[in-house]
Amino acid sequence: xxxKIILLWIVSVVFTVGIxxxxxxTGPTYPKAYNIEVNGQKFKIKLLRSAxxxxxxEILLPIxxxxxxxxxxxxxxxxxxxxxxxxxxxxxxxxxAYLPKQPAAGKLEYFIKLYYNDKTLKxxxxxxxxxxxxxxxxxxxxxxxxxxxxxxxxxxxAGLSYFVKEDNRSQFYVFLTLVTLFIGGFILGPLMQKYAxxxxxxxxxxxxxxxxxxxxxxxxxxxxxYYLGKKIKNKAKKYALIGLVxxxxxxxxxxxxxxxxxxxxxxxxxxxxxxxx
Length: 277
Hints:
By secondary structure, the chain is α+β, with helices and mostly antiparallel strands.
C-alpha cells in the first residue's frame, strides 16, 4: 500500500511538471524562435512576444557579423498605422533595435529584414505580435504561480487515485484542489491581472479572456466533483478522474490565449479628449 501511494505521488509530480512545462512553452507570449545560416554560421534568433512597459523593449539578434544589416519594422497591432522602419545597430551582443513601450495590454506587430552584402536573408514568413504589460510584484506573481501549480498537483493526485483501489483520500485532495485553485485563481490571479493589464477580471461576463474563463470553468467543475463525491461516496474517485480530465484539457489550451488587448481606437479617442481639455 505504502509503495503504491509513493508511486502515485511520483507519477502525480512528473505529470504535473510535464503539463506546467507545456504551458510555459506554448501560447502567444512565449518567444518565437527562428534559425538562420549565413556562410556556414548558424544563428538562433528568439523574438519577444511579451514585455514590461517600464521602458522600450530591446530586440536583440545574436549576430555579430558586421556584413549583416538588419531593419526592424513595427506598427501598432490591429490599426491602419504604417510601419515604422528602424535600422538595427551593431553592438557588443549583436544587432539591436528598440520597440517603443506601450500602455498596459497594448500590442505591436513587428518583423525584421536581414541583408548580407545587400542580399536578402529570408528567415521570417510572418509578423510577430508583442504585448506590453505592467510590472507584477513578485509578492503576487510567485504565490500565484505556486498555488496554481499546487492545485494542478492535487487535482492529478485526486484523479489518479481512481487507479489505486486501496487509496481512499481522493475526496480530500479534491477539497485541496478547490482551496488552492480559489486562492491562486480568484485572489492572486485578479491581483496579478490588475498589475499587468489594469483590470481585475476580463473573463465571463465581462470579456473573453480564456485564462480567466478556463479558471472559472475548472473551479465550477471541481466544485461539482466535490459535491457529487460527498453525496455519492462510492463514485468519488470516478468523479475526481473526470475532474482531472477537464483540468488537463484546460491546461492544454495555451496560456494567455485571447488575453487582455488594448483597443487603440478607443485609446486614441480617450487620449485626444484628455489633450483637448
